[in-house]
Design goal:
Layout: H1 12-22, H2 29-41, H3 48-64, H4 72-99, H5 105-117, H6 121-132, H7 141-149, H8 156-168, H9 177-189
Helix pairs in contact: 1-3, 2-4, 3-4, 4-5, 4-6, 5-7, 6-8, 7-9
InterPro entries: FANCE (IPR039685), Fanconi_anaemia_gr_E_prot_C (IPR021025)
Domain Fanconi Anaemia group E protein C-terminal: 1-194
Pfam family, one: FA_FANCE
Length: 195
């Protein structure tokens, strides 16, 4: 709809107010899919700041409150949004999920699914960078596994940081099957770069 062009003309504060007025954070999920489809067609594209605000308003509350797998409507909306605005999405939503220590398995599974199926390679690298900025935990190991599962070659500096992190934290994961799988995957995919 032509009215959506207002999104390109709002200041960040106005956009937050508009999202609040329209109650986008709680709109029904089928409408969310429709709205994200409209965002894809928007020309010119949203600025980074506007896309980040919309990622927060549209998805953050929904994702952090998941207690069961996301609906197909929510996954469709996330996939649509990620296809065009994956960098602001990662900075806002993925970072929040990774930093929430109390959040459960559904959020981690969702991030893994987005890494495996929706994100562009440079954003997959961004997710790994975000993971490596925090202390490694059992919760984060599947996310790293999902990154490696993409079979994308990591930049050398990111691979070095990953290997260093895994080496430094090895004693804490002495009994972890996920950690063992991760090390095996790295030695398989990057056997020529890892000594």
């Amino acid at each position: 709809p032509p009215e959506l062009h207002i999104l390109n003309n709002c200041s960040p504060r106005q956009l937050e107010g508009l999202c609040s007025f329209l109650q986008l954070s709680v709109c029904p999920e089928p409408l969310l899919v429709c709205f994200c489809g409209w965002l894809l067609a928007l020309s010119p594209s949203l600025s980074y700041t506007s896309a980040a605000i919309l990622a927060e308003q549209l998805f953050l509350r929904r994702v952090l409150s998941l207690t069961q797998p996301p609906s197909r409507h929510l996954m469709a909306a996330l996939a649509a949004f990620c296809s065009k605005y994956s960098q602001p999405f990662c900075h806002v939503l993925v970072a929040a999920v990774l930093q929430e220590p109390g959040k459960g398995a559904e959020q981690t599974k969702l991030v893994c699914e987005l890494v495996e199926e929706c994100l562009e390679p440079h954003c997959v690298h961004l997710v790994l960078s975000q993971v490596l900025e925090m202390p490694l935990s059992e919760k984060l190991l599947p996310v790293v596994q999902a990154v490696l599962g993409r079979q994308e070659l990591l930049p050398p500096e990111l691979l070095d940081l990953l290997v260093l992190t895994l080496c430094q934290q090895a004693p804490a994961f002495a009994a972890s099957l996920d950690y063992a799988k991760l090390v095996t995957a790295i030695l398989t995919v990057y056997q020529h770069q890892v000594s």
